[in-house]
Amino acid sequence: MIMIEIHEVMSVKDLRRFIRFPHILYRDDPCYIQEPFVMQQSLFDRKKNPFFLHSKVDFFLACKENQVAGRIALIRNNNHISHTGELCGFFGFFESVNDFEVAAALLNKAVSWIREEGLTTLRGPENFTTNESCGMLISGFDTPPVVMMPYNKPWYNDFLLRFGFEKEMDLSSYTLQDDRVLLSPSVLRMVKRISDHLAESDIKIRAINYKTLDQEIVPLLGVYNQANKDNWGFLPMTEPEFRSTARQFSQFVPEKLILIVEKGQQPIGFIIALPDLNQVFSRIKSGKLGLFGILKFIWYKRKISNARILILGMLDEFRNKGIDLILYQKIKENCMSLGMYHGEAGYVMENNLRMKSILEKVGGTCIKQYRIYKFEAK
């Protein structure tokens, strides 16, 4: 019987193997898109990623016959524990060859690790939280993922269930390619009526201003955390995390794709769309941003035709007033002005009936489904 060894990532060389393993695993998969290595290195850098300021993460490799056959990150999110009181640990960045024994070795390590941490439940995948990439793709394997969305091998769901994990929450993403709803006369009349009412109520919508980004961050962080506080699994972002994300977005998201709703001078809501950088990354097969990689990045970035609607948030007292419809209308117009005629919105949790209703009203169709699992390790 071939032994499967689990090694903790302890060196720069080990981390490089951890990062590069998916590039090997998905080498012949036409739907897999490799994010540039330099971006992944920054994500896992304990000195650069503010997540490591408050929480603990250990990375592990599964090796079979001296070759990497799987990987997993095990996460003690101290902010989650203090915020919820839940003794829950997380796993993320899970990958495995098509061998249940490899997956089981990684998951057994995960269970023993959280027990050593004094935790009783294992949840995931979350990379590192629900504010980032999370969930296991369970349907929709026939098309590539959009930016910052997961993609994985179809056998992972079976492996997790076979090990003893249970479904905890399903999430969906919606394609937004049908303009007939947003452009119908009845909707356009409704948009005009709502827009007039908002103007009378001193509510306006504007694009973010990167020149004053530092001043924008704190009030927007408050709106983001308040607007999402009732969503399942949501954990408030810290100011360093939010600031880091905002600075990343400022490097590739046009200002007109981050819209802020204000009443007077106070932000009350927002919508964010991201250019689908995966259309660019798919052209950089090596994952290396050398001279030719950078030239490809610059050239193909101009040709992006897809966008991802990342999130729409609104303070409670301003919901159900039609502002969300106006935001979708405006973000759609802004995307089209930049040559982005196709969109995907996600994530949407299965219990978020309000957002599902909004997306269906604007012509959205469910295209992919993801799952977050749990395992009781008591």
Reconstruct the topology from this structure:
Layout: E1 4-8, H1 12-25, H2 37-43, E2 56-64, E3 67-76, H3 78-84, E4 88-96, H4 100-116, E5 121-124, E6 126-127, E7 133-134, E8 136-139, H5 156-163, E9 166-176, H6 185-200, E10 203-207, H7 213-228, H8 239-250, E11 258-263, E12 266-275, H9 278-281, H10 291-301, E13 306-314, H11 323-337, E14 342-349, H12 353-361, E15 365-376
Parallel strand pairs: 4-5, 13-14
Antiparallel strand pairs: 1-2, 2-3, 3-4, 5-15, 6-7, 8-15, 9-14, 9-15, 10-11, 11-12, 12-13
Helix pairs in contact: 4-5, 6-11, 7-8
Give the helix/strand class: alpha+beta
> What's the story with the biggest beta sheet?
13 strands, mixed
Task: Domain count, please report it.
Answer: 2
CATH topology of the largest domain: Aminopeptidase
Distinct helical segment count: 12
Number of strands: 15
CATH H-level superfamily of the largest domain: Gcn5-related N-acetyltransferase (GNAT)
- Name the shape in a single word: globular
By CATH reckoning, the class of the largest domain would read Alpha Beta
Based on CA atoms alone, the radius of gyration comes out at: 21 Å
Overall pLDDT level: 91
Beta-strand content: 25-35%
**Architecture of the largest domain, CATH level 2?**
3-Layer(aba) Sandwich
Helical content band: 25-40%
